[in-house]
Amino acid sequence: MSLAQIASAIGKRFICGYCLLVCFVCASNDCFAADEGPGNPYIKSIKAKVIELKGGLRENPNDFQMQFRLAVCRARLHEYREAIAGFSQAINLSQSYLSANRKPGVNQTTGVLYLALSYENRASTYVRINEYQKAVGDFGRAIKIRPKYPPNYRNRAIIYERLGNQTKAKADYESYNGLIYLQQHKSERPATSSSTAK
After folding, report:
1. Distance from C-alpha of 134 to C-alpha of 192, rounded to nearest angstrom
2. CA distance 105 to 33
3. Residue 27 in contact with residue 129, Cβ under 8 Å?
4. What is the CATH number of domain 3-27+41-183?
5. Which site among 17, 45, 79, 133 is 20 to 30 Å from 157 CA-CA?
6. pLDDT given for residue 75 in this prediction
């Protein structure tokens, strides 16, 4: 299958991490909050959330979840440099949390998830400001953390395509398609219990 066939089969849409919408990779700032203007109640609620989260971080500056949510709000307001700084802080806080809690019996799932989400969302924000190499790096880091999460492969493939690296784009599209296929056919696998073998 050619790269053009793969791309047309999936569509050239970018899965935007911070707003969980599917956007075209155009970095045109066409986010759902952008066109509404400052009087939009949605924008007002995000700005109110920013104030609330800043207050919470003053009380608990090591809260990686709160830092992540603040960065998401910044990205939704198209404050991309602030969002990138916030996701970077969330990455550092998540890594510190994981390092401090490497003990038997301590559940690290939340820290690992927020670490991956922070890389994914920082990558999405880098795309918005046309810093594609940085986005590729962050999607690569997110893939190392969550290797079975298909959108990261798809997003990185779209960026590789934009950068003119058709070989890497094709490999990521194939990884994406393979993971989607496995997820769709997971429930169709025949049972392997001894009761089915007679």
Report:
1. 44
2. 42
3. yes
4. 1.25.40.10
5. 79
6. 93
User: What's residue 191's pLDDT?
Assistant: 55
Overall pTM > 0.85: no
How distant, in Å, are the alpha carbons of 22, 132, 146, 180, 193 from that of 184?
20, 30, 18, 6, 21
Q: Determine the Cα–Cα distance for residues 128 and 75; give it in Å rounded to an integer.
A: 9
Residue 33 structure tokens: 């909050």
In the chain, the amino acid numbered 127 is V
The number of angstroms, rounded, from the C-alpha of 180 to the middle of its chain's C-alpha atoms is 17
Tokens standing for residue 79 = 């404050």
What is the number of residues in the chain?
198
Angle, in degrees to the nearest 10, between helices 80-100 and 64-76: 160
